[in-house]
Amino acid sequence: VPTRPTVRARVEKRYADERSNLISRLEKATSVSLTTITWTSNSTESFITVTAHYLDAEWILHSDVLMTRAMPERHPAENIASRLQECVRGFGLTGKPCNNDTALVASMKTTLRDEMTERFQPGRDETAESLPMLASLLDPRYKKLSFLPRQLRRRTHTMLEGRLDDVPLKDSSCDDGDCATPAKRPRLEFMVTFPESSVEDDLQLYLAEKMDDATPALEWWRRNENRFPKVAH
């Protein structure tokens, strides 16, 4: 018979199971991006919601809500940061152009472009070395960085090269503990040179690759991860 105790017990068990599964998925993610939103219900109660965004091994983007909590206190940065830190600890996370625009649309685009230019200041050296520029470089559709002055594009390339040097490669043959035994080296291999691709080689090949602007970035990387392993990582 459905009663308050039995329903509550089922809900609590379901929550515990879902939370455990989510923590397991987060543990497998190389990195996690968190977003927060504060909102007010119809009964004027304030809440905060934290969402985690991460990629799985198949380059599929997941967005899972980690926490929704009442937040009756004011919402300055310090209080939001405190709730965010609480969530991080609880889940073990410490460690396309159009040429037929109407006049209104064209005006809106101009206004947005001017505001974005003022905010992000693409002519500054600091902008070339920022995370948004790095993300644009890693998106095959925008990797030419045509919105940056030519002299600053190289700075973004150099920043990526530096980060690639510091990131270890993932061994795709060792998932779930099932590591393939490396093949024996040919006895006469010393007579032939097989140079390993360097970070610079991998990056230059990626930059020279012809792209299809219709392909979403994550889908493109899922198909080409093995061709540019260092940049993909």
UniProtKB/TrEMBL annotation:
This protein's superkingdom?
Eukaryota
Keywords, in A-Z order:
Metal-binding, Nucleus, Zinc, Zinc-finger
Under SUPFAM superfamilies, the record lists: Ribonuclease H-like
Cell compartment(s), UniProt: Nucleus
Presence of keyword Zinc-finger: yes
**InterPro entries tied to this protein:** RNaseH-like_sf, ZnF_BED_domain_contain
Coarse class of the primary localization is nucleus
Please tell me whether the keyword GTP-binding is annotated for this protein: no
What PANTHER family has UniProt attached to this entry? ZINC FINGER BED DOMAIN-CONTAINING PROTEIN 39, ZINC FINGER BED DOMAIN-CONTAINING PROTEIN 4
What protein is this chain from? HAT C-terminal dimerisation domain-containing protein
Q: Which species expresses this protein natively? A: Mya arenaria
